[in-house]
Design a protein that fits this description.
The complex is a heterodimer of chains A (about 190) and B (about 220). Chain A has about 190 residues and is of the alpha/beta class. Chain A has five helices and eight strands, in the order βββαββαααβαββ. Chain A folds into two domains: about 120 residues, P-loop containing nucleotide triphosphate hydrolases (Rossmann fold); about 55 residues. The chains are: A alpha/beta (about 190), B mainly alpha (about 220). At the A-B interface, strand 5 and helix 2 of A face helix 1 and helix 5 of B.
């Protein structure tokens, strides 16, 4: 069953074409990678999919009003709060699952440190904990692999596989080639 | 979930103590310095102090709401809420927690200040009530101004919204006069409460719409 159908989607800013006539559909249980060069419009397409931006041409139909779990370029973390407090404001409990994730991401020792003291990669890993806890059937991530070390990338890949097994959908953008076999929507000219 | 969002917004503001303690301290400094600029021998009518309180709280609430949306906008939190159509709730809760942590404390500090000037408890209580109500109106309008100028610096939005607050200041002035002359306050207070209800109901909708356009 398709939850999303996009027909001839175009997006233009000041006479500059960002996206030109893109057609695709996405169903439940799919892992979809939106690929393209830097500046090719991957993030714009994601924003159109999640409804933050309106396409200038074409139609996009979401057949399901399911909640979406979204992580964009920005982490949504608060620099003045500790790791523990950031998990709290993301409605996450400090339970065995999240303590285990913090351990795997090598963040457990920083649990009472403020996020402002963490590196970009550590912040990225912390923001991914919310995603790894997601119960939503649709998950959308913008460049989730950027800034991650190999070990963390593997954790994310395992999560992606589990999403597919649960018949949930994960859409993500990436400008790097991944060995994994995801369905790919290329938006390069 | 609703209670959680309210708790989260309250927690975020509470932990950013500079954002709510700062305005209260600035207000405290202003009201301590104000009597020093007046001739202590002169018989200053309470009206001067009350007018000064209205204007000071207006300016301090402006200061207190300066970062109300910018932080969540910059770090991507607003984007996450917008995806699941939670912007209105978030705006409403943000305004509410700013009122509780900044607006109401300012009203109480002003109340104590007015009492300390040997102004009657009746006038002080009326001022407290007016400030509790008007601060919610001020915070709503300044939030609107900050939402309008989210990417352009706060001054532009504030210049647009301050004129909308002049009628509120006029009503506060009328309440002051009526209180001092012992006239009925029912009409003016009802007007103030009515404006508060209208503003608190509609402005969060307008703000959530403006924020969504910023996120496009």
């Amino acid at each position: 069953m398709h939850f999303l159908e996009a027909k001839n989607i175009s997006y233009k800013i000041n006479d500059r074409n960002i996206l030109s006539s893109i057609t695709f559909d996405i169903g439940f249980g799919e892992l979809v990678k939106i690929s393209g060069r830097n500046g090719s419009g991957k993030t714009t397409l994601l924003k159109i999919i999640i409804g933050l931006t309106k396409q200038t041409k074409g139609s996009l139909t979401r057949k399901s009003e399911e909640k979406i779990c979204f992580l964009g370029h920005k982490s949504g973390l608060k620099n003045y709060l500790t790791v523990r407090e950031n998990l709290l404001i993301q409605d996450l409990k400090i339970d065995s699952l999240n303590l285990d994730l913090l351990e795997k991401f090598n963040l457990k020792r920083h649990i009472d440190n403020s996020v402002g003291t963490l590196s970009f990669g550590q912040q990225k890993k912390l923001s991914l904990i919310r995603i790894l806890n997601a119960k939503e059937r649709i998950i959308i991530l913008d460049e989730p692999f950027v800034g991650l070390d190999e070990e963390s990338k593997n954790i994310l890949r395992e999560f992606m596989d589990s999403v597919k097994k649960d018949n949930r959908t994960l859409i993500f953008t990436s400008h790097i080639d991944l060995e994994d076999n995801y369905r790919e929507i290329k938006i390069d000219d | 979930m609703t209670r959680n969002l309210l708790f989260i917004e309250g927690f975020k503001l509470f932990k950013r103590s500079r954002a709510w303690v700062g305005p209260v301290l600035v207000f405290l400094l202003i009201i301590i310095s104000f009597p020093l600029t007046l001739d202590i021998n002169s018989d200053n009518p309470p009206q001067i102090y009350l007018s000064f309180i209205w204007i000071s709280t207006l300016l301090v609430t402006m200061l207190g709401t300066e970062l109300i949306f910018s932080e969540d906008f910059e770090d991507g939190t607003l984007e996450q809420y917008a995806v699941n159509n939670k912007l209105f709730e978030i705006v409403f809760y943000k305004i509410l927690v700013h009122w509780v942590l900044i607006g109401i404390p300012l009203a109480f500090v002003a109340f104590l200040f007015i009492l300390s000037l040997n102004i009657s408890i009746y006038i002080s209580s009326i001022a407290l009530l007016c400030l509790v109500i008007s601060n919610l109106i001020f915070i709503n309008f300044f939030s609107l101004g900050n939402a309008l100028s989210l990417k352009k610096g706060s001054i532009l939005g504030l210049l647009i919204t301050i004129p909308f607050l002049i009628p509120v200041l006029i009503v506060l002035g009328k309440i002051t006069t009526s209180t001092l002359l012992g006239l009925s306050l029912v009409g003016h207070l009802s007007l103030l409460v009515g404006v508060m209800i209208l503003v608190a109901s509609f402005i969060p909708f307008i703000i959530s719409f403006i924020l969504r356009t910023h996120l496009e």
